[in-house]
Structure formats: structure tokens, C-alpha cells
Write a structure and sequence with these properties.
The complex is a heterodimer. By secondary structure, chain A is α/β, with parallel strands linked by helices. Chain A has 2 domains: 113 residues, Response regulator (Rossmann fold), CATH 3.40.50; 92 residues, Winged helix-like DNA-binding domain superfamily/Winged helix DNA-binding domain (Arc Repressor Mutant, subunit A, Orthogonal Bundle), CATH 1.10.10. Chain A is 41% helix and 23% strand. In chain A, the strands form 3 sheets. Chain A has a 5-stranded parallel beta sheet with strand order 2-1-3-4-5, with helices on both faces. Chain A has a 4-stranded antiparallel beta sheet with strand order 6-7-8-9, with no helix packed on it. In chain A, strands 10-12-11 form a 3-stranded antiparallel beta sheet. In chain A, helix 2 packs parallel to helix 3, helix 6 crosses helix 7 and helix 6 crosses helix 8. Chain B folds into 2 domains: 142 residues, PAS domain (Beta-Lactamase, 2-Layer Sandwich), CATH 3.30.450; 128 residues, Histidine kinase-like ATPase, C-terminal domain (Heat Shock Protein 90, 2-Layer Sandwich). Chain B has a 5-stranded antiparallel beta sheet, with helices on one face. In chain B, strands 7-9-10-12-11 form a 5-stranded mixed beta sheet. In chain B, strands 6-8 form a two-stranded antiparallel sheet. About 2% of the residues of chain B have low confidence. Chain B is elongated and about 130 Å long. The relative contact order of chain B is 0.07. In chain B, helix 1 crosses helix 2, helix 3 runs antiparallel to helix 4 and helix 5 packs across helix 6. Classes of the chains: A alpha/beta, B alpha+beta.
């Protein structure tokens, strides 16, 4: 999975980001100052940087100016539009306003990684292997036909493995926020995925909450 | 620009204007006396010269008068004094280095090519018109010095005031926005860890870490909230004490708690009606809750002492110790609520003391002893 640099001076939040990103399989490096962030980004390559705007030694924007080649999501506590405009002007890929929802953060991380083609090409678990770019799914060596909707749902579940996703969130991410579907729609598609790909042991129902892909 | 910065700018400009106004009114008399003094001196000198000139002129026949006057004034060459004499509107003699229009019978200052001069114009009995003209460099310097000093002092004071005002406003206004900002971090962490615990299959160790962070960050939030509270208190004006009608206050309480029986031997005390009503409402509320159904709660006011007595079971030693000295930073019991610490605070604000004792026949007596609320 992706190599992610977390630049956040608040240890509690830094740990929170790392905990959630590592659970879905990313490799994380935590730094707490702008200086360390610039050094780390120069010494090692990262697929993504999560950057706090308010760092003790410098503004996050200053880090962004020095580290141009790493896709960046900046974290801002201020809801100020000027911050967002400034961040995008400097080439940031997305922003998240504190306090954020963990699920939203993960969704944005996945989206940025997908856009910059930093996601893994093939994912395999047991007899199942999925080629994301080719949109092909193989079970026990045989190709399985999935509808585009089922494929998207599967990708979201696997991208956020080990995290419980509510039906609302799955609807919003796989069907889009404009889709006026019921949460039953999600249930039906999940059933189909489980059956077609023999994922009964991996796609778990979380009581009263949603679904979780467990490896 | 923030509202307080606008307010600051406006008030600074206004204050500076007022300050300059004050400076001017303080300096104006000094400047006026300098001007007057110089004019008086010039007038005196001119008068004595004019007298001497008149004498000289009168001593000679009329056709030689002009020559005599010219000769007399010739003595004043190189003294810094200049003169002009005219007769029947005709200038007959002049040493004034500038073109200067005569102003009959007047005196004052005139600026010629950047130099300040004093002039006095006078008509002598002999018919000569004398104009006295004198360089006023010293007076000029003095005047300029006075104006400069006033302007400098005004500017310095205005600057000092502006800086002090800005610092004060900055201190008063900024912390709130900063604290509001500071609250976001613990909130983000708490929300995030709670969601993580809810949504993610965590190991026991990870669960422990998440829960610890939630606990740690909520402590931080508590600290921020108490900081905000302190700031709020500091900003509020101090409570104003007025005479409070004790019986009226008790009646008000009795309307809420019908089992209250009251006795008033202290008709008025000095305090804040709202705070005191809140205090006794709290105490009576506790007493009513502790009393058996329908049993009276006695509310008694004697000079400097007000007591609330119930006939309940009474409190344990531990509970008594707790309500007498509620721990300041400990989490309060759900049942204890905010009531008792608040009561202590209100008493303290009145310079009074609140204490709870066991009653002689069981039950609890809450006593508020006042020290500064007696009206002579």
C-alpha cells in the first residue's frame, strides 16, 4: 500500500491518523515539525503527505512550497476559505477541516491516492485476485463478471479494510451523494458480492452500523 | 479587520485628536505670553526712541527737522533696529530692508522672506510718522520651540497611549479566539478516537491507546473551559451590591417551595439579589429533597446569619465533609450537580461563609454567615 508522511504536531492527532491509516494497510511515518517534514520528504519518497497548517516552527504552507512533488492533503483547523484557496494555489490535492470524521479522511486519502495512481495494482486474498486498473476479478483462476457498481463497492470496502463503513457512507461513496437510494440497495449488493466472490468470511456485517472488510 | 481592531483604530484617532486639542490649549497661553511680552518690549523701546526723536526734532527749525531726524536715526545703524519716517504720506527716510506697507497706529509681527519682524507704527506730535522695525529671531525660535515641544509631547503621548491600548485590547480579545481554536484539537482527537473504537476492529492495546487519548483530551477540554470561565469572570464587572429585602426574597422562594416556613429578624442586607436568590433556592432545594414528604423546611434570617434547616435523615460525616469542602477540580457526583460549589462561590462573592452542620434533632442545617452585608 501507500507510503504516507503524517505532519502534525499534536501527538494525539498524529497517532490517530497513523492508527487508522495503518489499519487499512498503509505505511506511515510521523513527524511533528515542518523542518522534519521537509527533511523526511527529501530523504524518502512518499505517495502522500497529510499536512497540518499550524505547525510549531512554520506554517504548513511553507512546507508545501518546499515539497512540491508529493501529493498533499492539508489539515486545517480554521474553516477560513483563504486557507483553502492558499492551499490549493500551492498545489495541494485536498483539504480536511478539523474536527474531521475518520471515514471522511480515509475516503479523501483513497481518492487522492487513486488520482495519483499510487494504489496497488493487484490485490489478492485467498483464491481471489483483483486487478484494479483492468477492472478484472479472478476467483480460483476463473474470471468473475461484476457490475460496475459491485466493483466500486468492492474497491471501497477493500481500500478501507478493517474499518466499518456505514450504509450511508457506502451509498455516498459508491453511488454518489446525489443517488436517492435506500440503504437496502447496499445490502443487496453486498449479498451479491459475498456470493459471487465467496467473501462471506471477509465482508462482515457490523450490527446496527454497516459493513467491514476483514482480511 | 476584526471588530475590536476597528474600534481600536477609531478610538485611537479620537483620543489623539482630543490629546492634540488639550496640548494646544495648554500651549496656547504660553505662546500668547511670549507674543505679548515681545510686543510690549518693542512698544516700550519704540516709545522711548520716539520721545527722544521728538525732542531732537523740536529743537531745530522746521526746514531742518527732516535732516535732524535722519541724523538722529542714523545712530541706530547696526543695532538690528530699522526705521522709516514719513511726513504727509511721503517716505523721507527708510532703513527697512524689505518692502513694507505702513499700517498706521498699529503694532504686531510680520514675516518677511522667512524672517520674523516686530513692527510698531506711531504718529508723533510733530507730524512725523515713525515705523519701528526689529528682527525677532529670538522670539521666532522660542515660538517654534514651544510649538515643536507641544507637538512632540502630543505625538509621544498619543503613540504611547496607542501602544498601551492595543496591547490591552489584544490581550482581552485574542485569547478567546485562540482558546476556541485550541478546543478544536482535543475535539478532533476525541471524535476521531471514538469513531475509531466504534468502526474499527482494534487490538486490545490499540483500544486502550484510543480510550486513553479520549480521557487525556477531555481533561484538556476541561482546562480550556475553565480558562474561558475565568476570562469571562474577569471581564464581567464586579457584582454590585444593593440593599436586599430579605422577606421579599424568602416569599419568592416560598412560592417555589411551599413547605418553606420562614422567620425574618434581619430585614435588609447588602448583596446581589439574583445571586442570593440563586444561593438560597439551591440550599432550600437540597433541604426539600432531603426532607420527608410534607415536612417543613425552616428558613431563618437573624442579624448576619441566615439558616436553612430540614428534618430529614441528616448526612453522613463523609457527605458533610464533602459539601463543606467540595473538591475544586474533581469531577462532581451526578447527584451532587453544580449546586454546592456554586453556593460556596456565591457566599464567597458576598464575603460570607457557607457551612453545613448536623441539626440538634437530626436533619441538616445550612448556615450562611455574612460579614460585610450589614446596613447601618
Amino acid at each position: 500500500m501507500a507510503k504516507i508522511l503524517i505532519v502534525e504536531d499534536e501527538i494525539a492527532i498524529n497517532d490517530l491518523l497513523r492508527l487508522n491509516l495503518e489499519i487499512i494497510g498503509h505505511k506511515c511515518t510521523s513527524v511533528y515539525t515542518g523542518k522534519d517534514a521537509i527533511r523526511a520528504a527529501r530523504e524518502q519518497g512518499f505517495d502522500l503527505m497529510l499536512l497540518d497548517v499550524m505547525l510549531p516552527d512554520m506554517e504548513g504552507f511553507a512546507v508545501l512550497e518546499k515539497v512540491r512533488d508529493v501529493p498533499t492533503i492539508f489539515l486545517t483547523a480554521r474553516g477560513a476559505t483563504t486557507d483553502k484557496i492558499r492551499g490549493f494555489g500551492l498545489g495541494a490535492d485536498d483539504y480536511i477541516v478539523k474536527p474531521f470524521e475518520v471515514a471522511e479522511l480515509l475516503a479523501r486519502v483513497s481518492a487522492v491516492l487513486r488520482r495519483s495512481h499510487k494504489t496497488e495494482e493487484v490485490y489478492s486474498i485467498g483464491d481471489l485476485s483483483i486487478n484494479w486498473d483492468a477492472h478484472e476479478v479472478f476467483l480460483e483462476g476463473k474470471r468473475v463478471e461484476l457490475t460496475p457498481q459491485e466493483f466500486t463497492l468492492l474497491r471501497i470496502l477493500i481500500e478501507k479494510r478493517n474499518v466499518c463503513l456505514s450504509r450511508q457512507r457506502l451509498l455516498a461513496e459508491a453511488w454518489g451523494t446525489d443517488f436517492l437510494g435506500e440503504s437496502r440497495t447496499v445490502d443487496v449488493h453486498i449479498q451479491k458480492l459475498r456470493k459471487k466472490l465467496k467473501l462471506e468470511n471477509h465482508i462482515k456485517t457490523v450490527y446496527k452500523n454497516g459493513y467491514r472488510f476483514e482480511e | 479587520m476584526k471588530l475590536w481592531q476597528k474600534t481600536y483604530l477609531l478610538s485611537t484617532i479620537l483620543c489623539a485628536l482630543i490629546l492634540y486639542g488639550c496640548m494646544f490649549s495648554v500651549t496656547a497661553p504660553a505662546i500668547a505670553s511670549t507674543v505679548k511680552g515681545a510686543q510690549a518690549a518693542a512698544l516700550r523701546e519704540e516709545r522711548s526712541i520716539a520721545r527722544a526723536l521728538e525732542q531732537t526734532v523740536m529743537e531745530v527749525p522746521e526746514h531742518r527737522q527732516t535732516a535732524a531726524a535722519t541724523a538722529f536715526l542714523g545712530f541706530y545703524q547696526d543695532t538690528g533696529l530699522f526705521f522709516e519716517i514719513s511726513k504727509e504720506q511721503e517716505t523721507v527716510y527708510s532703513t527697512i530692508p524689505y518692502y513694507f506697507e505702513r499700517r498706521q497706529g498699529s503694532e504686531g509681527f510680520v514675516r518677511m522672506e522667512g524672517h520674523l519682524f516686530l513692527f510698531v507704527n506711531d504718529i508723533l506730535p510733530s507730524g512725523f510718522e515713525l515705523t519701528y522695525f526689529k528682527g525677532a529671531e529670538n522670539e521666532d525660535m522660542l515660538l517654534q520651540k514651544q510649538i515643536m515641544t507641544a507637538a512632540l509631547a502630543g505625538t509621544l503621548t498619543a503613540m504611547l497611549m496607542a501602544v498601551a491600548l492595543y496591547a490591552l485590547l489584544y490581550w482581552v480579545n485574542l485569547p478567546i479566539s485562540r482558546l476556541a481554536h485550541e478546543m478544536r484539537t482535543p475535539l478532533t482527537a476525541m471524535k476521531g478516537y471514538a469513531e475509531t473504537i466504534r468502526d474499527v476492529k482494534l487490538t486490545e492495546e490499540q483500544q486502550h491507546m484510543a480510550a486513553s487519548y479520549i480521557a487525556q483530551e477531555s481533561t484538556r477540554l476541561t482546562e480550556i473551559s475553565s480558562k474561558l470561565l475565568t476570562m469571562h469572570n474577569a471581564k464581567e464587572e464586579t457584582t454590585t451590591f444593593r440593599p436586599v429585602d430579605v422577606e421579599e426574597m424568602f416569599l419568592h422562594i416560598q412560592r417555589t417551595y411551599p413547605t418553606v416556613v420562614y422567620k425574618v429578624n434581619w430585614s435588609t442586607l447588602l448583596g446581589d439579589l439574583n445571586l442570593l436568590t440563586s444561593l438560597f433556592n439551591n440550599l432550600v432545594d437540597n433541604a426539600v429533597k432531603a426532607s420527608p414528604e410534607g415536612s417543613p423546611v425552616e428558613l431563618t434570617a437573624d442579624i448576619n446569619v441566615i439558616t436553612v434547616k430540614d428534618h430529614g435523615k441528616g448526612m453522613t460525616d463523609e457527605a458533610l465533609a464533602y459539601v463543606n469542602h467540595p473538591p475544586k477540580h474533581k469531577k462532581l457526583h451526578a447527584s451532587g450537580g453544580l449546586g454546592v460549589p456554586l453556593c460556596h462561590q456565591i457566599a464567597k462573592a458576598h464575603g460570607a461563609k457557607l457551612s453545613f452542620q448536623r441539626g440538634t434533632d437530626g436533619g441538616t442545617v445550612a448556615t450562611v454567615t455574612f460579614y460585610n452585608s450589614l446596613i447601618d
